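Consider the tokenized backbone below.
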């Protein structure tokens, strides 16, 4: 987590060393790269459909995707759905994706596209790869070879995200090489499809500024995830080993820190001439909802003020904006995300 002026100065120095040029991304992530006009595919307000296909099997974590949930996301004014998928849990001995599982993913993607939502298809929770990237690279390449071919004829509103949150056990240099190999694999089949590159260090800001953008490809984006301060956003979350700290967020100092962090992201977008997506941000559901909503509203505002599209984590599970028990949006959260009260 980047929590100090020193961190801002260091990262700003790294960015200042980059070749500047072009123009900053606009509200839809537009900009120029190598003299080519580019426009991100309209990702502005996005919801992560989390906790379903990213588990080892759908329903394991208490959530199963229903089409009416996709209807609710579209009706609330979101334009994009991010679908995290644990493809690695559905490979056979020859690294072929289970056809039944692929059909399930198809059904969700197809329905979302039919509701005029863009879809980001993500490789999520490939934990074996994080432990052994060289040894597992053939599996990851096989996943993308199959996905690129399978979705070759899908519309441009389907976006590929190569790899979620490479851990800090994988260096930034390795992440850049991984991105390059995966992008080459996708481009062999889909030369025009938008692709989101992974950032190092769990997709945090420090990793983002070390992400290299392949030259000459006008349809790539980078991504950053934001959960700072972690002791606030993840307090009580069992997977993060954080107690219920009682930490709160808000006030001039916290808002200034948020602005500094997002200035780093905006500066990266300008110097690298590449759209950046805020791919995840959220607060654990056990934190009081008014505190969750205040932080989410502020982060959303910081992203939008700098022309960055965003994708909230997530829909109905650990950092939920939708309450499955009452089958409705959590009003404070929907208002924080869209300005529209829940029903």
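A designed sequence for it:
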């Amino acid at each position: 987590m980047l929590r100090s002026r020193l961190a801002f100065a260091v990262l700003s120095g790294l960015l200042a060393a980059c070749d500047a040029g072009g123009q900053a991304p606009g509200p839809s992530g537009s900009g120029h790269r190598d003299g080519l006009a580019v426009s991100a595919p309209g990702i502005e307000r996005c919801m992560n459909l989390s906790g379903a296909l990213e588990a080892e099997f759908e329903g394991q974590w208490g959530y199963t995707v229903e089409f009416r949930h996709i209807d609710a996301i579209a009706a609330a004014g979101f334009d994009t759905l991010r679908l995290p998928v644990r493809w690695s849990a559905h490979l056979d001995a020859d690294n072929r994706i289970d056809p039944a599982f692929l059909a399930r993913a198809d059904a969700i993607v197809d329905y979302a596209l039919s509701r005029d939502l863009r879809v980001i298809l993500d490789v999520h929770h490939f934990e074996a790869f994080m432990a052994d990237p060289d040894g597992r690279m053939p599996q990851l390449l096989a996943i993308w070879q199959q996905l690129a071919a399978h979705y070759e004829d899908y519309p441009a509103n389907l976006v590929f995200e190569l790899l979620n949150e490479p851990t800090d056990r994988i260096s930034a240099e390795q992440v850049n090489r991984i991105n390059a190999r995966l992008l080459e694999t996708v481009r062999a089949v889909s030369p025009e499809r938008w692709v989101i590159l992974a950032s190092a260090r769990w997709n945090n800001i420090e990793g983002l500024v070390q992400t290299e953008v392949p030259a000459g490809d006008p349809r790539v984006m980078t991504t950053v995830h934001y959960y700072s301060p972690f002791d606030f956003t993840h307090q009580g979350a069992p997977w993060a080993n954080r107690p219920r700290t009682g930490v709160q967020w808000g006030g001039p100092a916290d808002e200034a820190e948020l602005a500094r962090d997002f200035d780093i992201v905006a500066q990266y977008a300008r110097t690298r001439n590449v759209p950046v997506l805020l791919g995840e941000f959220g607060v654990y559901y056990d934190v009081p909802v008014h505190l969750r909503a205040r932080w989410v509203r502020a982060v959303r505002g910081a992203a939008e003020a700098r022309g960055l599209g965003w994708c909230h984590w997530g829909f109905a599970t650990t950092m939920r904006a939708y309450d499955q028990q009452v089958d409705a949006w959590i009003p404070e959260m929907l208002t924080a995300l869209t300005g529209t009260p829940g029903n």
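The two ends are 35 Å apart (CA to CA).
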